[in-house]
Amino acid sequence: MENKDNKKKQLLLRLSPSLWKELAAWAADDFRSINGQIEYLLTECVKQRRKSREKTKE
Known about the structure:
Elements: H1 17-29, H2 34-57
């Protein structure tokens, strides 16, 4: 039986053509798909946010 929390969620995301082009180039440089690049960037931002919140609690 598969846990629902382990399934990836789908998200419709509208981007400007210029942002799409920049992300596509960045993803190609990092050998990722555009979807993979967006997921990587969001994950990194969440990690940074957690770190900054921990610092403010100290």
